[in-house]
């Protein structure tokens, strides 16, 4: 029905983005992976969308890649996994890392995602294992997901000190973070933000 929306970023939240297209502002729920890939300075962005209609409301979900959109659609086919939990999982793990966790029965990794307990993790693995194509896994993205987990931890720590996500992201982009521990990265970011 609605494959994608292309428009101007009006607002970036923690779980959503508002995009203006032809004078209409669309609130699009999304994952932290998509939000972290969005350049707030960009004039136009494109998000692949999926509409969820319920009795009480209509929700629009969107992602910056077809792969993440398709993985979201797969996740919501699992019993007791709704769109909000699917987004939480995709915020915790990129699509390649998630697929790898499912194929390797990595219950512990799935349980690290907010809202996922042991039974839910087992259900995700059981219901999706045969639907995952191993050839769709980008092994370079798995390493990237580990880096993103560290950066998200650093970001959350700095947010708790009163800085916003965009200031923190800008500071992180200016630093060489290779081979540093989380505590060292936080100190460097805070020094950069204080200047």
TrEMBL record:
GO CC annotations, alphabetized:
cytoplasm; Holliday junction helicase complex; Holliday junction resolvase complex
Q: Which GO terms describe its molecular function?
A: ATP binding; four-way junction DNA binding; four-way junction helicase activity
Any GO BP annotation: DNA recombination
**Ranges where the Holliday junction DNA helicase RuvA C-terminal domain occurs:** 150-193
Q: Tell me the SUPFAM superfamilies matching this sequence.
A: DNA helicase RuvA subunit, C-terminal domain, Nucleic acid-binding proteins, RuvA domain 2-like
Chief location category: cytoplasm
One matching Pfam family: HHH_5
InterPro entries from the entry?
Answer: DNA_helicase_Holl-junc_RuvA_I (IPR013849), NA-bd_OB-fold (IPR012340), RuvA (IPR000085), RuvA_2-like (IPR010994), RuvA_C (IPR011114), RuvA_C_sf (IPR036267)
Region (Domain I): which ranges?
A: 1-64
Q: Which Gene3D superfamilies does the UniProt entry name for this protein?
A: 5' to 3' exonuclease, C-terminal subdomain (1.10.150.20), DNA helicase RuvA subunit, C-terminal domain (1.10.8.10), Nucleic acid-binding proteins (2.40.50.140)
- Keyword set, alphabetical order: Cytoplasm, DNA damage, DNA recombination, DNA repair, DNA-binding
Where in this chain does the record put each DNA helicase Holliday junction RuvA type domain? 1-62
Where does this one sit in the cell?
A: Cytoplasm
| Region entry Domain III, spans | 151-195
Record note on domains: Has three domains with a flexible linker between the domains II and III and assumes an 'L' shape. Domain III is highly mobile and contacts RuvB.
Quaternary arrangement and interactors, per the entry? Homotetramer. Forms an RuvA(8)-RuvB(12)-Holliday junction (HJ) complex. HJ DNA is sandwiched between 2 RuvA tetramers; dsDNA enters through RuvA and exits via RuvB. An RuvB hexamer assembles on each DNA strand where it exits the tetramer. Each RuvB hexamer is contacted by two RuvA subunits (via domain III) on 2 adjacent RuvB subunits; this complex drives branch migration. In the full resolvosome a probable DNA-RuvA(4)-RuvB(12)-RuvC(2) complex forms which resolves the HJ.
Instruction: Give the protein family.
Output: Belongs to the RuvA family.
- Annotated function: The RuvA-RuvB-RuvC complex processes Holliday junction (HJ) DNA during genetic recombination and DNA repair, while the RuvA-RuvB complex plays an important role in the rescue of blocked DNA replication forks via replication fork reversal (RFR). RuvA specifically binds to HJ cruciform DNA, conferring on it an open structure. The RuvB hexamer acts as an ATP-dependent pump, pulling dsDNA into and through the RuvAB complex. HJ branch migration allows RuvC to scan DNA until it finds its consensus sequence, where it cleaves and resolves the cruciform DNA.
Q: What is this protein called?
A: Holliday junction branch migration complex subunit RuvA
Report the source organism.
Soehngenia longivitae
Q: Which gene encodes it?
A: ruvA
